[in-house]
Amino acid sequence: MTREVDSFRFVSRGTRRVAKAWIDSAEPREIPWTPISKPLSECRVAMISSGGMALKTDRPFDQEGERQNPWWGDPSYRLIPKTATAEDIKVYHLHINPTFAEQDLNCLLPLDRLSELEASGEIGSVAPSHYAYMGYTTQPEQLLEESAPAIIRNLRDEYVDVVVLVPA
Question: 37: exposed, middle or buried (C-beta count within 10 Å: 0-12, 13-18, 19+)?
């Protein structure tokens, strides 16, 4: 059985129509991909998830701000260590059902699958840190100006060669 996630469940019908029209009107842009310069079997790999998850010991994403203003989404990010398990995380994303990821972290951040790729030699190594942010961000300025550069600095500090984007 296939179930569809309603990404607009916390917004009014008018907001839903405007958001869908806004998304449909976006002009396609070139994606700035960079080819890897060495075999994947020699690369360190990190993941970035838009699933809005955080360690239970970390600061939660701001859900109340989004409930009050559905056009706003928390632009910060959270660091998730490669040793994290489903018991370690909580999902704060209002637009997805958190139950699945809280039972199996691999739904939003497939760390076990990445470790299996490392063990089989398909990738060189799993990065020490991975990242999560709130995927529903209609005002991305702070995300792009502050969070993204901070994530990039961390990736460089950990000598990450490849990033896998995991959409929620």
Answer: exposed
Q: Which residue has the tokens 């990010």?
A: 77
In angstroms, the Cα distances linking 100 to 1, 74, 91, 129 are 15, 22, 10, 22
* Residue at 14: amino acid letter: G
Per-residue DSSP letter, 28: P
Instruction: Write out the two tokens for 76.
Output: 């910060």
Coil, strand or helix at 81: strand
For strands 53-55 and 89-91, give the pairing: antiparallel
E strands within 15-69?
44-49, 53-55
70 in Cβ contact with 22 (< 8 Å)? no
Tell the burial category of 99 from Cβ atoms under 10 Å away from its Cβ (0-12, 13-18, 19+). Answer: exposed
| Segment 35-75, tens digit of pLDDT | 889 999 999 999 999 999 999 999 999 888 888 887 778 99
Assigned token pair, 107: 């739904």
**Distance from CA of residue 24 to its chain's centroid?**
22
Which residue type does 35 have?
P
Contact 46, 125 (CB under 8 A): no
Read off the pTM. Answer: 0.81
Q: State the Cα–Cα distance between residues 99 and 87, nearest whole angstrom.
A: 12
